[in-house]
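Worked Example 4.2. Read the sequence first, then its structure tokens.
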Amino acid sequence: MSLVKCPECGREVSTLATSCPHCGCPLGAQAARQPKVPNSPQKKTNGHAVATIVVVSIVIVTLAAAAAWHLFFRGSDNVDERTAYNTILRYQNAGQLDSLAEALNFYFDTYNPDAYHYSQLKELNDRFFAERTDWQTAEATPTLASVRHFLDVHPDGLYLSQARTKLDSLSFIEATQSDTREAYEHYLTQFPQGRFVADVRQKMNELDNVELTTEEETSINGILDAHFNALADNNRAAIETTLAPVVSSYIGKANPELEDIYAYMQRVHSSARTLIFSVKNPTITKVKLQGRSIYNVQFILDEETYSGSSHHATLDTEAGAPSNGDETDAPKPDNVKHFSGTAVLDESMKITSLVLRQ
């Protein structure tokens, strides 16, 4: 005999009993042999699984919602911040510095230090505005010294292009104020690719056209001395070599022929006297006329007259006075006249015009 539990009251009852002695619940032999089975453990397990699935689902939904919020709200902030960052870089690389200043100001007015590019742009911002202040100071007093000082302080700065352009302009102005070949050559050395190279070369060509060389000065002085020596000697052949093929004016005669000039020589030598001409203090101006060089000479002419024709003196072109070998025995002139003279010579160093005024 064994004991089982009454399905009604749960007390132990003999398997041989047909009913429960405690509550009277009929048991029956087969019922007594098959005790009541408690609730299925599988069903309890399935309930816990369902609860777990529900909790996990809630967590997943919550995370998905958070991700969606981050994407559509915080995510949009990151996109805008990166756009602002890229805009700043674009202005920096293009040298659009006014736009760069505005973009930097907008960025730091909009974003906090936790922004992704904040620290990187903060360094650029501090450097840029410090340099911008220095450049504005240099531009306020634009001199070669102030611009060169700026370049010394910021040799690789964002305003390097503007500073070099300003230095180029100021150096050109300095060269034109000097207006010498040396000044223009100095500019070309500093700025071989400068904005004003063509202008400088043109000015150098103009200087070449108007600057009188030592050779030109020597030739012109020699022609004048030869002309007046030939006039003093009444030498037609010698005086002709000093004249241009066409003479516009010769000592009061417009458009003279050679015979007119010879006639003037004859008048000068009409009396028995010796003449000595001395050209003094010549001032030569070279000009360009229709692509050709013209030389205008202002000078003083001394005419010394000696009695008789036996005395012969030649012009000492260095001292500007007659030389007769032994200067202690040189006679005194009977008369001395002073003239102001103007001569024009063409590019072949021949006289085209001669004017004398006493």
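Now turn to a second chain, presented in exactly the same format:
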Amino acid sequence: MLVELFVAFRYMRSRHRKFLSFSTMIAIGGIFVGVSALLITLSIMNGFQNELRRRILGGTPHIIVRRFFNEPMDNYRDVMDKLEGLPFIKAKAPFIITKSLVRNRKNVDGVVIRGVIPELEKNITEVSTHMIDGTFDLDNGCVIGIELAQNLKASVGDTIIVTSPFTEQIGLLPRSKRLILKGIFDLGVYDYNATVVYMNMKDVQKLFETGDAVSGVQIKVDDVYKTPVYSKIIEERIGYPFRVQDWIELNHSVFAALKLEKIVTFIVLTLIIIVAGFNIVGTLINIVKKKTKEIGILRSYGFTKTQIMKIFIYLGSIMGIIGTISGIIFSVISCYFLNRYQFVTLPGDVYFIQTLPVEMSLNDFLAVAIASILISFLATIYPALRAASLVTVDALRNE
């Protein structure tokens, strides 16, 4: 073992006990608390972000193809033919999306109508697997979200009236269609549960008099994180006047806000580690004052200024490493128990989930560990320089 490292370990202990000194434990504890708080918070934020991503993808196609200005697409079959042969496409289907009104008895609400082909829709989204009542059956029927069902006071088997606001047959009069409520779904996202009504595409075309036209083509791919690349490939193949949007672009504002929130949280909680770094500075300065005589003796035995600096650099760095490692271990254990036993519950009417989601990220752990050790190292520079600047004769005379 290096002599400097041996002396550094010795300075960590108290004079009368073999355990760490109180000031050393306080310095290590500050790093421990900062690292633990930062890692646990980032893991919880990762859990929320990934859970939200999964739930959004449950009701959103990975990629959609539409005409510019959202004009009706009459030649959607030609578009689907052009997409044949692309290996990353797992499923594709036409869809219609429009706004309308629905009524159940005296209860009325504005909704977004999604006209789909039931057999193909099951390959695109996960709505059919999130039914909490009834089935995903659109044969002369419809499927709505749980929040909308509560607003309309509707249950499976009720007759839902869907209205087309205007028709040009006789002036501007509304048209309506009666549908049986076949099922109620819960995707875990309020916007979907409270606004979306799934209908058979043929019924929507007939009600809104769109003929054979659709709003666009929805696509499911093999890797949801490569959709920006896939979108460019599709756009080059089908050309103008079509535009391609992926789920990341459609939900850009949501994920941008979450990313910004995570960055701000990282910066704010890193301040805890910086405060712990100042605690290391105070501890080392205190040790320099207490060990002035010992430093003078070491200098008289031939220790250079560089060796004296190394002693205190090693001492502060060891404190930072111990605090960082213990904080990482505590964070891993805490996240494991939070994720496994889920003893922290959340109000379901406020959040879209009822248990606290936790997902650890290796990149977050590495970033926090590097930042913590770097801050601890920087905190040692001033005390080390102060210890090295002591003059041997003055240090011994003052003692």
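Notes for the reader: The two ends are 29 Å apart (CA to CA). The chain has two domains: 3-56+254-398, 61-247.
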